[in-house]
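[[Sequence with tokens]]
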Amino acid sequence: MSQVVDVLHRREGTATFAQLRALVSARTIRTALADGAIRRIAKGVYALPPVPDPLAAARAQGGIVSHLSAARLHGFSVLDLPDKPQITVPRGQHRRLSPIPCELHWADEVPSDGRCTGKLRTVLDCARTLQFEAALTVADSALRLGAVDLGQLLIAAAELTGPGSRRARRVAAAADGRAESPLESVLRSILIEAGIDGFEPQVVVRDDTFSARVDLGHPRLLIALEADGFAFHSTRAALTRDCRRQVSLTLCGWRLLRFSWEDVMFDREWVVSAIREAVAGPPRHQNVPEIRGRTREPLAG
């Protein structure tokens, strides 16, 4: 059941039955629906239960919106939607009785007049507490939007102490505002954790008649990586453009490895193996047996 919820989280909260069924069993979907973990909002369309208002939860607890809830308020991309508001309260303060469920964090410095943590503080809070790929998604988005300066992020992360400070410094060192989507950030996090170097975000490939950007490119080895989301081929015209683009990249000497959302999120070992094999050398050519046909007899004249 948790996998159904995870899929909906990573799809911004909604999915069709067919999209869920591609990853989980029908029985699992029915169980999640019966237990209230998901809800049906239309025929064949499912969603997560509504999340309480984080600002109301913060007021109820005498704190401020923080972490992923604050990232959402700031407009940052997130890998996982929080299932309940994340609130930070002053250290030593007890949880207040409230009908609004929330996830509490405690800190020494909590502004009493703020709605949510500031943009830089939000990125750092996420970097300290989230898994690497989720934290990198938030940091990349904040840099891409110009909400946070990379130099300030690096300095602030270096000054952190206490739990999660080393994790935050790792995220700050890896953050890159050129990343254009959460899935791209996750793919880059996989490369980083696997120790595969040389790939840069949004590399431009061009010649006299062609120009394109690839999600991640290795300029020296001419290897391009792309992470395709759910709606990558939304129309026939989009599919045609993509086919021509892939042919043009090949003619420019690039090898293109494309990974689906399911590959990146659920089969990372295979993703790493495929990229390692591409980095190790050109595609392997198997011995193709000689094909012999029957000789045609000359026509009788």
Observations:
- DSSP finds 13 helices and ten strands in the chain.
- Residues 2-47 form one domain.
- The chain has three domains: 2-47, 54-174, 182-280.
- The first helix runs from residue 2 to 10.
